[in-house]
Amino acid sequence: MKVPSQRNTIAVAAVALLSSAGASALEINAGDYKFTVNGNVNVHYIYSSCEKNPASVAGGLACTKTGSEGNNSSISNGLLPAALVFGINTHQAGLDIGAHFGFYPGVSSNDGGSPNLQQGAPAGTNVALATTALDVRQIYLDFGNKDIGTFQLGRNFGLFGFDAIINDITIPGVGGAGSASGGAPANTTLGSIGLGYVYTDTLAQINYTTPDFAGLKATIGIYDPLNTVGQTIPGPGGVPVSTPSKKDQPGFHGKLAYNLAFDKTTKLYLSSTFITQEQRDVGAVGNNYRSYGVDIGGKFTIADFEVLGWYYYGKGLGTTALYLLSDDGAGNRRGSNGYLAQATYKLGDVKLGVNYGVSRLGLAQGEANSALVARNSKVTGGVYYSLTKNLTLVGEVTSVEAKSHLGDKNQSLNFNIGTFLSF
């Protein structure tokens, strides 16, 4: 018995996308309960050729090198960290009930985890004796049935931007290399995050999803509101310090999704989401503002050929991550928009794919031109070979360009080969 839900987790969805096997590698029935386990392990070699003597682009995602620095090699996870997801499901009083725990470790040794060498310690990062961290992204419960819909409460991936990332061809791969192009790679790369969509993130949330009405489902929910990234107030001696701001209301988000199957090989999927919350400027009374974002897109499949596209628009939304660079520091919202376009074709066990993404960030009203990023864009070409039903071999080439509002730009190129094991 599987608890119905509007969204699968990223780990489970990746398994479903990359494997013909069931969504769970292990299922154990014990009385009225069923216990499930699934996840992935992925590792990639990533080589990055970065811009030499780069222009200043604040928020640009093209990698750069200065001085004696050269190009970069790393061995790291890709867009996804490794994952181990546990589920506990039961059926009681006519309700499907479940609890879910998602643990996401990485292979890079700079994110903490060692009792002696934490990130930022004097010894530095990515050094001997360090270990990797455990990222606990999911802790949630859900209950409901096909007649009344489903309630979900806890920490899980958000609604806004979820469909764009889960359908990104770089899910089993790398895409934009991000920090993997530097000397201390994090446990994940960018994929197309900030290069076609804003990262969905994991949020503390309470959602309700309707029953399926002839392929149409709606989800509405509230979430714990996020502070803007880098929000500061004057501290002792006038030195800025970061501080959270209180919110008198939650954030709100919602989703509409529609599935239509013309026949066994021809399918259409459409979705649209929104997100909004109040932002409070803790440094200056009266400079509060409301952030919002909407996206819309879909995918069309004919046998082995698939095309998809998603577009987003926001005000006070920011770029790359939720509420990153979302205002000018004085409570004046910046506008942002972007899109991801993609096509794939399967030749037996081989899938060929290409996608192109753009994320734009505008200036606030009255804000002067600066080195702030105006546009991040990326093109990725990839080959994904199913060596077995669970093991995929991956090869990708990605070109990234970042351009500032002054017209300066940086360009970089990264190549990766690796493996993705889903279970």
How would you summarize what this structure contains?
The protein is mainly β. It is 3% helix and 50% strand.
Characterise this structure.
The chain is mostly beta strands and 423 residues long. It has a single domain (10-232, 240-422), classed as Beta Barrel (Porin). Helices cover 3% and strands 50% of the residues. The chain is built from two helices and 22 strands. It has a 16-stranded antiparallel β-barrel. Strands 3-4 form a two-stranded parallel ribbon. The protein has a two-stranded antiparallel ribbon with strand order 12-13. The two termini are 19 Å apart.
Any key phrases for this structure?
423 residues; disordered N terminus; Porin; two-stranded parallel sheet; 2 helices
Structural class assignment: mainly beta
CATH first level: Mainly Beta
Unreliable residue stretches: 1-8, 15-22
What's the count of strands?
22
Number of helices: 2
- Looking at CATH, the homologous superfamily is Porin
